[in-house]
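> run fold Putative Zn-finger protein
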Amino acid sequence: MPRDLDLRHVISPAVRDLIELANLGDFDRTREQITRLRGCARPINLVGHTTTRDHTTGETIRSYSTSDEPTGRLLTPCGNRRSSRCPACSRTYAADTYHLVRAGLCGGKNVPETVRTHPRVFLTLTAPSFGPVHNRTTDKDGKSRACRCGTHHPEGAPELGTPLTPKAYDYTGAVLWNAHAGALWARFTLNLRRALAAHFRLTQKDMKQLLRVSFAKVAEYQQRGLVHFHAVVRFDGPDGHNSAPPAWAGVDDLRTAIATVIKSTTLTVASDTVGDQEIKWGKKFRADEITALGDGELTDAAVAGYVAKYATKSAEDSGTVDRSLICRTCSGRGTVGGRVKDLCPDCDGTRQAESLRDLPVHRHVRQMIRTAWDLGGLPEFADLKLCKWAHMLGFRGHFSTKSRAYSTTLGALRDVRRAWRLAQADAARVRAGHPVPAPNTVLVTESSWAYLASGYRPGEELLANQTRHDINQARDDKERAKTEGEVWQ
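> ok
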């Protein structure tokens, strides 16, 4: 920055920082970095270098160092899947999830199109009742019915999902159900394979050689703070999506086995303090056939869109907070120091980063958080780490999982993007007159990177806001053009 540049008269810190950025040199490169992030809310700041050489000749093919950047650092997307944390990165995650699920439904991404002919259902599994809650129901004609409290609640009413009688609600059972939901799903898939073997009168060994069950699932929070699962469950041959299942295995067989296993799959959680708890599925579930070519409501594209939408949701959609409540200074121990332990100066021994009483959440959500925190202090539940996951209302599983042979992977999709970016860089080298390696050249890459910080400088935040505005404007224009096109048709 020029020495004679005096910015004391600029009141706004963001504008002052933007002027400083513009005077660092190569401002276009600074803007390029921000634009490439596509509006990421809190990018990762890295420092380091990478060099790619030809293994045979030792010639440097590509080299990069953050010391050549105007700001001396590289900004990379945070990659957070939660829309509440980063809408931009969550859209990328949703798009990847969409393509992953869609590939397992109608092919693509190295999955053959014949997968469309495999029997498959869209399964929804819910949690059981832990007490009556306020809700909105309809009769068989779609007419609104009054809640048990006698009120016709409007859509979005804050009391929806909350207990009718909070003192009688089983908060302990609800939190422990959330904490074991992932294990219950694993037990369900194991029992489903066993049930199908018995249904077809096969041994489990013979079934593995004839039939495979593949799935992709996501978790979603209900208004009452309990997770439920949406999954694509599919019949395959022994080689997964690359082989067709036997002709005698159909959708009806799959739905029958699912209905049987849902009723019989349980887990027992032993506790001398709160009593033994039986973890099981709720009575309400759906297993609808997925159609291939638009003959019904649940088409390939529709199901993939549903799953991708659910994949970016999180606990905040049920009214909780999006951050851990464990004190970072003492890591939830309540004390600091070596041999002589002192109370943590930040939490005063409470182990909490924030007082549970002061959290800006509904009373029902606060009670679930408090219950998770209290259960986390019991020795028999130490392995559940409920204090760490109290802000998630006890749920500690992955929001999105799939079986190995369902389709492609998120890592493979990211590798494709990375390869595309390298191809673009090589094309730029060709345009600049620099040589590029032959297709069969063995390359050696040496890298060294270190984390510096997270987030933008104030001036960079202004540029990021402009990028977000441009992206949203382009999306709105595209939707408007699509709508107008449908009207004209």
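The chain has a mean pLDDT of 88.
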